[in-house]
C-alpha cells in the first residue's frame, strides 16, 4: 500500500470517529442547541394554586394581636425592646401605616390565604387575602449579566425586592446545579427566596420592629400527600443588624385548597 493511500485511509477514519463526537457535543447553555429552560419550565415542583395557612404553632402571637411588650421568642436587642415598648397603634393608623405588620418578614406568619401564580416565565407572584399584599418573586433572566440578580428598585416597599432560584438537587441528582451546594437535608424540591429593600415595619403587629437593614431568606418545601392535598412549609430567617441580636427563624405551614372559593381579601389592621 502506498503512503498516499495510507494517508487517505487514516484521514477518513479520523473523520468517521470525530463525527459522532461532534453530534454528541453540547450546543449552547441548554445542551441541545438552545437556551437553558426558563425557571417556570424547569420548576421541580409546582407551588401555583390556592393555599391556606395552618396555625400549628405560636397561636397566641399569630391569631390575635399580642399586647404591648410581648416580644418573647424574638432575639431583640435593648434598642429594639425600647422601640417595641413604645408601640402606639393609633399613631400608625393616623399615619396610614396599618400595614407595618404585613411586610415581607411577617406576612407568611399571618392567618391568611395565598394565591400563587406565574405572571411570566421568570416571575412568581404570591397574593395574600390578609392585608391584600402582593409579593413578586423574580428569577434571573438570561439577558442579565452572568451572576447578576434582578435589578433592585430604589423605592422601598412592604414586600421589598425578592430574588428567587430553585435550589440545586442533592449530589448525584438531576438538574442544573450552577455550582451551588444544596441545603443539607433537602431533596432538591425547594424554592429559595432572598428579600431586601424592605420598608421598616413590624415582626409582630404589636410593634416589634425591624429596620430597613433587615433581610429575609426563605425556603419553600413542597410535601405532596399521597391521598390528600399538598402542603408546603416555608422556613423564614430574618436578619437585622440594627434590632436583632441573632437570626430569627420561623416555620409556617400551608395546605392546598381545591379552588379560591374561600378567598376573602381584608385590609391591613394596626390592632
Task: Please provide a written account of the structure.
The chain has helices at residues 3-24, 59-62, 78-85, 89-94, and strands spanning 49-54, 113-120, 123-128, 134-139, 161-166, 190-196, 201-204, 208-210, 215-223, 231-239, 248-257. The N and C termini lie far apart (97 Å). It has a nine-stranded mixed beta barrel. A two-stranded antiparallel sheet has the order 7-8. The longest helix is centred in the first third of the chain and has 22 residues, at 3-24. The protein is globular. A hairpin with a 3-residue loop joins β7 (201-204) and β8. It has two domains: 1-35; 49-257, no CATH class. 15% of the residues lie in helices and 27% in strands. By secondary structure, the protein is an alpha+beta fold.
Summarize the structure.
The chain is of the alpha+beta class.
Structural class, by secondary structure, is alpha+beta
Q: What's the total helix number?
A: 4
- The helix/strand order is HEHHHEEEEEEEEEE
Overall residue-averaged pLDDT value: 84
Amino acid at each position: 500500500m502506498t503512503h498516499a493511500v495510507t494517508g487517505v485511509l487514516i484521514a477518513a477514519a479520523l473523520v468517521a470517529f470525530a463525527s459522532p463526537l461532534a453530534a454528541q457535543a453540547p450546543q449552547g447553555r441548554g445542551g441541545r442547541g438552545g437556551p437553558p429552560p426558563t425557571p417556570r419550565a424547569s420548576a421541580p415542583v409546582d407551588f401555583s394554586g390556592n393555599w391556606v395557612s395552618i396555625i400549628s404553632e405560636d397561636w397566641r402571637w399569630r391569631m390575635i394581636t399580642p399586647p404591648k411588650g410581648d416580644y418573647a421568642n424574638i432575639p431583640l436587642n435593648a434598642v429594639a425592646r425600647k422601640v417595641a415598648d413604645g408601640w402606639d397603634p393609633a399613631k400608625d393608623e393616623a399615619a396610614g401605616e396599618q400595614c407595618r405588620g404585613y411586610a415581607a418578614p411577617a406576612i407568611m406568619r399571618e392567618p391568611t390565604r395565598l394565591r400563587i401564580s406565574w405572571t411570566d416565565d421568570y416571575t412568581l407572584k404570591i397574593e395574600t387575602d390578609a392585608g391584600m399584599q402582593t409579593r413578586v418573586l423574580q428569577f434571573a433572566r438570561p439577558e442579565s449579566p452572568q451572576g447578576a440578580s434582578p435589578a433592585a428598585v430604589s423605592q422601598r416597599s412592604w414586600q421589598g425586592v425578592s430574588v428567587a432560584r430553585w435550589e440545586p438537587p442533592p449530589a448525584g441528582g438531576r438538574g442544573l446545579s450552577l455550582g451551588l451546594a444544596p441545603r443539607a437535608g433537602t431533596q432538591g424540591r425547594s424554592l429559595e427566596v432572598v428579600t431586601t429593600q424592605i420598608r421598616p415595619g413590624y415582626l409582630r403587629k404589636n410593634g416589634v420592629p425591624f429596620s430597613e437593614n433587615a433581610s429575609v431568606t426563605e425556603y419553600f418545601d413542597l410535601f405532596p400527600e399521597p391521598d390528600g392535598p399538598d402542603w408546603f412549609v416555608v422556613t423564614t430567617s430574618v436578619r437585622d443588624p440594627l434590632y436583632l441580636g441573632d437570626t430569627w427563624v420561623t416555620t409556617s405551614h400551608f395546605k392546598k385548597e381545591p379552588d379560591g372559593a374561600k378567598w376573602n381579601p381584608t385590609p391591613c389592621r394596626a390592632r
